Amino acid sequence: MAHAAANGGHDAHAHDHEHDHESLKTFGFWIFLITDVILFGSLFATYMVLHQNTNGGPTPEELFKMPGIIAETFILLTSSFTSGLAVLGMNKGNMKQLIGWLIVTVILGASFVGLEVSEFVTMVNHEGASISTSAFLSGFFALVGTHGLHVSVGLIWMIGLILQLRRRGITAVTKRKVEIISLYWHFLDVVWIFVFTIVYLMGVM
């Protein structure tokens, strides 16, 4: 009896320790997110200072093809919704729904990156607009490229998490990871809304 009580106490202590460990990792992610906010804030500020310095090169009005940009925006916003559905599935304990919506999110995110790479290639190869053409384009490629890089990292992270979920199922660790990747993905969507408004909409107006 005493032995069982001791084991119960040990298990409870181990559970509390695991919970604290996961909470600490979540807190660490919030610190990372704050540094990312500072990074993007600096890139936005730099772009705003440089965006009128075209050096005789292509202007935003000449470069930006809004139908493609609107398609990118729609795809990324939809992927934020599907990542939320994945978390909903996880909270219901539905592994099939969780993994299914994460896969849909990956497909949408990859489509976004593909369209953005296509946009960059067209700018460089057909418009002669590279990162060294003007201060405006340096600011543009630094800001939009950094966001695209973050999305690409998120995709790799999400694919790794899908594989881990298939092996381990929904545990305290994988649950925390799903919640964090979803938060990260929503953050990238918010950043893109600012990119869409400040870079593209203001650029063509």
Automatic annotation (TrEMBL):
Which ranges carry the Heme-copper oxidase subunit III family profile domain? 1-204
- Enumerate the subcellular locations listed in this protein's record, separating them with semicolons: Cell membrane
Q: Is Cell membrane set as a keyword in this record?
A: yes
CDD domains, per this entry?
Ubiquinol_oxidase_III
Provide the membrane topology annotation.
Multi-pass membrane protein
Q: Which UniProt keywords apply?
A: Cell membrane, Electron transport, Membrane, Oxidoreductase, Transmembrane, Transmembrane helix, Transport
A Pfam family that this protein carries is COX3
Job description of the protein: Cytochrome bo(3) ubiquinol terminal oxidase is the component of the aerobic respiratory chain of E.coli that predominates when cells are grown at high aeration. Has proton pump activity across the membrane in addition to electron transfer, pumping 2 protons/electron.
Listed name of the protein: Cytochrome bo(3) ubiquinol oxidase subunit 3
